[in-house]
Amino acid sequence: MSSMHLIFELSGDHPDLAHAEALAVLNRSSCDPSLIHQGELWSSFEVSQLPPFPILGMTQAAYQVLEGPFSSPDELLSSLRSDPPSFPDGTFVVRSAHFDDTEIEGSQEFQATVGEVFYDLGRKVSVKDPDIILTVITTKEGTFLSLLVHSRDKEDFMKRHVKNRPFFSPVSLHPKIARAFINVLYRPGETVVDPFCGTGGFLLEAASMDISAWGIDLDPDMVDGSKQNLGHLEYDTTKVLEGDAENISTFLPDLVGKAVIVTDPPYGRSSYTGGQTILELYERCLLAFKDFVGPKGRVGIILPDEASIRQAEAIYELELMVPVRAHRSLTRHLCVFSHRQEGP
């Protein structure tokens, strides 16, 4: 089986989450990924096939490497002139991307020089509307010629942005972060369940990826709000229930052991918790979630501080933790937990 080399341009605000998402999607898409390099804002993998790129939330762009790495742009150019690679039919343009502070001096002129190599072979150039975008990528690991195979559709995410929902909360996650968190956790055949669904951010992202999802919330206003947001985009509004997250197995008995939890529980003093303290709420629900997902299941939960993370670690094994700054004085933690493996 032939393999290919992919370079992922990661979102600059949360690159660790972006890398984890890319790796998770490659794994569940039967791409047999092998990590080549993980940089600050880029990752590269050897894969057996292209993944379904549009579902990625935190990948800005993805490139299929045609040539490289070379030690310098001049070495790349020399190789192209002596043995130019083939690429799909259609008009083309040459652009550039750079990582690790390696921008080519005179990059536009270099792009034009690379373009001349293929123009001289009879390929047609289209600057405004090309069929193919060739990209010269420079990194500390070398210089590459690549084919752009994915660019994130920002307009699609904006359809589900908090400011474009009929019912919203100002602390809602950005859709790209919600989607990335789902992608890190989801495995084929599972149902996504958000037992603190709030305004329905995770439900919206799951629906947009054709993943079955259920939501639960103790606050009837949030239940109604989630349904409004789902209905606004013509998604199913029947899978949002009013109730206590602790009773998740009672609400959804057919999903016990068949679901993944992805949730953002209340964390502030003004949050609706049914009269409990935040840590009391977490304690009860974390135990209920463990029973619900079963011994092979996972729980993705956004926690506000070290105390709540330690509380969860007393029950689960922490697989991944990514801090996400909500605003200047608040950092929240996207955590992935699994059942703790007991010793012999």
Could you provide a short overview of the structure?
This protein has helices at 15-28, 73-82, 107-119, 154-158, 175-185, 201-208, 220-232, 248-251, 278-293, 306-313; strands at 4-10, 34-38, 42-47, 59-70, 92-98, 132-139, 142-151, 191-194, 213-217, 240-242, 259-263, 298-303, 316-327, 330-339. The protein is an alpha/beta fold and 344 residues long. The protein has 2 domains: 4-151, 2-Layer Sandwich (VC0802-like); 155-339, Rossmann fold, CATH 3.40.50.
Describe this structure in words.
The chain folds into two domains: 4-151, VC0802-like (2-Layer Sandwich), CATH 3.30.2130.30; 155-339, Vaccinia Virus protein VP39 (Rossmann fold, 3-Layer(aba) Sandwich). It has helices at residues 15-28, 73-82, 107-119, 154-158, 175-185, 201-208, 220-232, 248-251, 278-293, 306-313; strands spanning 4-10, 34-38, 42-47, 59-70, 92-98, 132-139, 142-151, 191-194, 213-217, 240-242, 259-263, 298-303, 316-327, 330-339. The mean pLDDT is 93. It is an alpha/beta fold and 344 residues long. It is elongated, with a radius of gyration of 23 Å. α1 packs across α5 (175-185), α2 (73-82) packs parallel to α3 (107-119) and α5 (175-185) packs across α6 (201-208).
Q: What's the SSE blueprint?
A:
Blueprint: E1 4-10, H1 15-28, E2 34-38, E3 42-47, E4 59-70, H2 73-82, E5 92-98, H3 107-119, E6 132-139, E7 142-151, H4 154-158, H5 175-185, E8 191-194, H6 201-208, E9 213-217, H7 220-232, E10 240-242, H8 248-251, E11 259-263, H9 278-293, E12 298-303, H10 306-313, E13 316-327, E14 330-339
Parallel strand pairs: 5-6, 8-9, 8-11, 9-10, 11-12
Antiparallel strand pairs: 1-3, 1-4, 2-3, 4-7, 6-7, 12-14, 13-14
